[in-house]
Specification:
By secondary structure, the chain is α/β, with parallel strands linked by helices. Helices cover about 25% and strands about 30% of the residues. The chain folds into two domains: about 5-130 and about 285-315, Alpha-Beta Complex (Quinone Oxidoreductase, Chain A, domain 1), CATH 3.90.180.10; about 135-260, Rossmann fold (3-Layer(aba) Sandwich). The chain contains nine helices and 15 strands. A hairpin with a 2-residue loop joins strand 1 (about 5-10) and strand 2. Helix 3 (about 130-145) crosses helix 4. The longest helix is centred in the middle third of the chain and has 14 residues, at about 130-145. The protein is globular. Bound molecules: NADP nicotinamide-adenine-dinucleotide phosphate. NADP nicotinamide-adenine-dinucleotide phosphate (NAP) binds near residues 161, 263 and 264.
């Protein structure tokens, strides 16, 4: 008889609890026993059938959601070396229409190149909260924005999942950070290490004569055309969502010596291991709450709350009823 695992799926009337076959790792893959997972903005986009949601996960049923995880290697496929059963690992599943598994279940299989090992000093909760938001921030700021020593980043949505870890990552890359958030979050964001924090309803960060090397628009609330006057020559605007204005922005960027970029996050071993070291060294990923998997619907609902202050973590290993 085929061995099965406990899993969840998004159904018409909310979260359902189901059984699925335990996946077998193929060549180059490992199987991970999930300990903790976390909720991203993407889950609701898939549940709602948003246009963007169709690119984040396969539309095939059952909709087992969840990309982020911390767990233990449970089995190793052919051709995988240097990692053993029992190793503590973290990462995220690909945001791709080919992804048909989810981390709100007991096991996943994933390529070795898409996971990183965890230092003892990083808890499962922090490791599960961090992968997507930290990889998105790192790849936006360092790879697209070329943020480095002495360069200045403007981070929009600085109290959000990506923005708040983005503040700490910018400082570790040697940058200066001006952070933009709502009034309720100003003190919290200052505590994350921002050099300057602007209340988004009091201060317009654009059109005031100031310019930045990188403008990181985490909620994709603006457009390249709107912010281009606030970029230095050679500066970069990075957004998290594709839009109709993106391609014209890229062309306009070519003509003006400024760059317009869309980040597409990837779970990469080297980046995970870099950030794991920073987490071990105190890089903050604020956690709002932790829910047992038996209350996954409440965790998904919490992600939508305006007063949420950090990431929503799900206890998968210990949270079944
Ligand atoms: N392209 C990729 O690879 C990728 C990867 C991961 C996530 N994403 C996307 O990135 C987006 C952000 O993700 P997240 O996890 O950081 O979400 P989040 O935790 O909900 O944070 C979004 C932040 O943006 C702020 N905000 C919302 N509307 C704003 C506006 N009009 N002006 C200024 N600030 C605004 C919100 O704060 P207040 O409204 O309280 O001020 C909130 O703090 C999501 O759409 C997600 O799907 C893309």
């Amino acid at each position: 008889m085929m061995a099965t695992m406990r899993a969840t799926a998004a159904g018409k009337d909310g979260v359902e609890f189901i059984e699925l076959p335990i996946p077998e790792p193929e060549e180059g893959e490992v199987r991970v026993a999930i300990k903790r997972a976390s909720v991203n903005a993407g889950e609701q986009k898939v549940i709602d059938g948003d246009f963007v949601g169709r690119f984040l996960r396969s539309a095939s049923a059952p909709l087992v959601l969840g990309w982020d995880f911390a767990g233990k290697v449970d089995a190793v496929g052919k051709g995988v070396y240097g990692i053993d059963r029992g190793a503590r690992v973290w990462g995220h599943l690909p945001f791709s229409p080919d992804t048909d598994q989810g981390t709100f279940s007991e096991y996943i299989v994933i390529k070795r190149s898409e996971i990183g090992e965890l230092p003892d000093g990083v808890s499962d909760d922090v490791a599960a909260a961090a992968p997507t938001v930290a990889m998105t921030a790192l790849q936006s700021l360092r790879d697209h924005g070329q943020l480095g020593e002495g360069r200045h980043a403007l981070i929009i949505g600085a109290a959000g999942g990506i923005g708040s870890v983005g503040v700490g990552i910018s400082k570790r890359l040697g940058g200066k950070v001006t952070a933009v958030c709502s009034a309720k979050d100003v003190d919290r964001v200052r505590g994350l290490g921002a050099d300057e924090v602007l209340d988004r309803r009091e201060t317009n960060p654009f059109g005031n004569g100031r310019s930045y090397d990188v403008i990181f628009d985490t909620p994709a609330a603006h457009s390249f055309g709107h912010v281009t006057g606030s970029l230095v020559r050679g500066g970069t605007y990075v957004t998290t969502l594709p839009s109709l204005g993106l391609f014209p922005g890229m062309v306009r960027g070519l003509l003006t010596g400024k760059r317009c970029r869309f980040v597409q996050v990837a779970s990469r071993r080297a980046d995970l291991e870099l950030v794991a070291g920073w987490l071990d060294d105190g890089l903050e990923v604020p956690i709002d709450s932790t829910f047992p998997i038996s209350e996954l619907q409440a965790a998904l609902d919490r992600q939508q709350d305006r007063d949420r202050a950090g990431r929503v973590v799900v206890d998968v290993a210990g949270g079944w009823v």
